[in-house]
């Protein structure tokens, strides 16, 4: 007879190479408190990643004036963050399996914090764009990793509470970002919109180190490199087309080429994932019946 959902928390990870499913389980005592400390660390990381997608908007005119940049150049400060963030998401599943979800999440937090400092140090537009691309690597991975950890550590019958609190940050961060960014730019410096991540990142690392449970890495996990390249490249092309379609013209050769490449790249990705034992995304789950 299986224990009830409240009796244990299941940590499940699909291994690569067709080796089946490895489950890491720990018994949860009825009197054991809910892991709000771990949830707080996950919420902070998610909040930082989402906030940085919106807090920069109001600072762009000031940055453009200081760096003497054109409108096309300064828009890449926003666009590159969204493009790179979308590209790295498919790799998070493998990283969580291979190195453990706690280690992967805390590494992304640390990388995001360091690259936020690099954004603040930027001396021209190109340096800022490059730093934002690096920042998006950590920011893009933090969100799916944190969601996966929430499902691993929280009792199934109370998952709605955890996801409600976690999802609240996805709503609050975009609303707070422009207001906070405008205040920092007007009364202090545009560089503070990036430096503000330093204390928050360090606090998140400390809380995560103390409260997030360890997960055992799956040593046999293998990376489907071709599948990762196909989905990442297709996402990049699709997001770039959607971001620049109005500016370049939806019927322009560049946009049509990007959309066509994204379509065939995604088609090849789905066909390839059906043939490999260690897919980046298990598209077989989409089958009906």
TrEMBL record:
InterPro entries for this protein: EmrB-like, MFS, MFS_dom, MFS_trans_sf
Compartments (UniProt record): Cell membrane
PROSITE patterns the record matches: MFS
Organism per entry: Ammonifex degensii
Protein name: DHA2 family efflux MFS transporter permease subunit
Listed PANTHER family: MAJOR FACILITATOR SUPERFAMILY MULTIDRUG TRANSPORTER MFSC
Transmembrane annotation, as ranges: 36-56, 76-97, 104-123, 129-154, 161-180, 192-212, 224-243, 255-274
One Pfam family, short name: MFS_1
């Amino acid at each position: 007879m299986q224990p009830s959902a409240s009796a244990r928390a299941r940590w499940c990870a699909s291994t690569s190479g067709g080796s089946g499913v490895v489950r890491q389980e720990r018994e949860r005592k009825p009197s054991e408190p809910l892991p709000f400390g771990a949830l707080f660390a996950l919420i902070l990381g998610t909040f930082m990643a989402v906030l940085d997608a919106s807090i920069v908007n109001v600072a762009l005119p000031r940055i453009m004036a200081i760096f003497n940049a054109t409108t096309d150049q300064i828009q890449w400060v926003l666009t590159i963050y969204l493009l790179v963030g979308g590209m790295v998401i498919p790799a998070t599943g493998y990283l969580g399996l291979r190195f453990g979800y706690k280690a992967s999440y805390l590494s992304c937090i640390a990388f995001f914090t360091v690259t936020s400092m690099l954004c603040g140090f930027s001396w021209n537009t190109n340096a800022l764009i490059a730093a934002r691309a690096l920042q998006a690597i950590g920011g893009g991975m933090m969100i799916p990793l944190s969601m996966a950890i929430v499902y691993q550590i929280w009792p199934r019958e109370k998952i709605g509470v955890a996801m409600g609190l976690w999802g609240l940050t996805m709503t609050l961060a975009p609303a707070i970002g422009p207001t906070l960014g405008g205040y920092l730019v007007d009364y202090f410096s545009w560089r503070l919109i990036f430096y503000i991540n330093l204390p928050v990142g360090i606090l998140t690392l400390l809380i995560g180190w103390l409260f997030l449970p360890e997960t055992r890495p799956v040593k046999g996990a293998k990376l489907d490199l071709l599948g990762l390249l196909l989905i990442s490249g297709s996402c990049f092309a699709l997001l770039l087309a959607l971001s620049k379609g109005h500016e370049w013209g939806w019927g322009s050769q560049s946009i049509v080429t990007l959309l066509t490449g994204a379509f065939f790249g995604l088609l090849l990705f789905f066909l390839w994932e059906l043939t490999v034992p260690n897919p980046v995304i298990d598209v077989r789950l989409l089958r009906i019946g």
